[in-house]
Specification:
about 210 residues; mainly alpha; 2 domains; DUF1003 domain-containing protein
Length: about 210
């Protein structure tokens, strides 16, 4: 059995998951004793303990005062020495137990404080990260082109193209000897129809790009 227990021991496993070997029993015994002393310390701090101790002391004094001399185990003339010794022993054991319970509570408070501090640091880091992400998103949204801006740019581009077509038509008419005064210069019906069709096609293309 001992060989089987040694063979089943894994040193690469976490300490809390190992079987009770290599000091595990000692740690478990210390923890069990600490819980026992904490239970006693909590019991001493209750009104029931004070009431029981008071009843015990009164019963001791009454028995050793009113009982027959042969049945008494403490001397009234000596000031109840045995009772004093019992209470002194109880106090001498109670003080270390209370101190041990306080030390264990301090250790738990220290661990809880450290966990709270780490949790607060993680929360602060997450909050700062989210704040930076929100600011970056706002800046990116400002840099994006809106739908109205794209429409206005396309309209301006169509106007420029129309003006360029009209200038080309005027130059072609002048080259053919059909140029007229600036106020009455207009291309012939075929050129107007062609430019109208080209303008319509550009508008359709612009609208489809917007949609």
């Amino acid at each position: 059995m001992a060989r089987a227990s040694k063979a089943g021991l894994r040193l690469d496993a976490p300490k809390g998951l190992r079987p009770g070997t290599l000091g595990g029993r000692r740690g478990a015994g210390n923890d069990r004793f600490g819980r026992f002393t904490e239970a006693i310390a909590r019991g001493m701090g209750t009104p029931w303990f004070l009431l029981g101790l008071t009843v015990f002391a009164i019963s001791w004094i009454l028995w050793n005062t009113l009982a027959p001399p042969a049945w008494r185990f403490d001397s009234v003339s000596l000031g109840f020495i045995a009772l004093t010794l019992v209470l002194s022993m109880q106090a001498s054991y109670a003080a270390p137990m209370i101190l041990l319970a306080q030390n264990r509570q301090d250790d738990r408070d220290r661990v809880q404080f450290e966990q709270d501090r780490q949790r607060s640091e993680r929360t602060l880091a997450d909050t700062e990260y989210l704040a930076r992400e929100v600011v970056a998103l706002r800046i990116a949204m400002k840099d994006l082109a809106s739908k109205d801006f794209i429409r206005s740019e396309l309209r301006a581009l169509l106007e420029i193209l129309d003006a360029a077509d009209e200038a080309e038509a005027a130059e072609a008419a002048e080259a053919a000897g059909l140029a007229r005064p600036a106020k009455t210069d207009r291309p012939d019906r075929g050129d107007r129809n062609r430019s109208a069709r080209e303008r319509t096609e550009r508008e359709r293309t612009g609208r489809s790009a917007l949609d």
